[in-house]
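Review this today:
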Amino acid sequence: MVYSTKSQPTPRRVILLEDEALSRMLLTEVLTEAGFLVSACENSSQALKAFKDLDPDALIFDINLGDGTSGVDLMVSLLRQSPDVAGVLLSNYQIAPDKKDKELQEVAFIDKRDLADPQILITTLNTVLSEAMRIQFREPDDVCSTHVFP
């Protein structure tokens, strides 16, 4: 018998917050096929519970959740608790959110129309995850400032 000493990498954990059921299902499928462990949420309450239960590596939130909750506000709140978590904001609006909150400086923005090519989501997510890892292990006196997307 031959035993492999290689261990399978642990899948990156992602919380997807999208109020539109079809979009949530399609994005979950794309992320899962790319090897991510996805907790798909339809509202902010589910996302908060998943955040406590999952210890995510990344958050992918729709900006307008339809119920008055802002995906931006929720993301800022969660990133204040866990600044090493990567973030991606999705919207049908072409204008990216104001990044006045320091928690949003490293967050990527994707116009949902660009998701017709699913690779855009995967590439963007991998970029912000790499950036989050770099920041997490950066020396405290490193003053390098980076931005994933302007």
Summary: The mean pLDDT is 82. The radius of gyration is 16 Å.
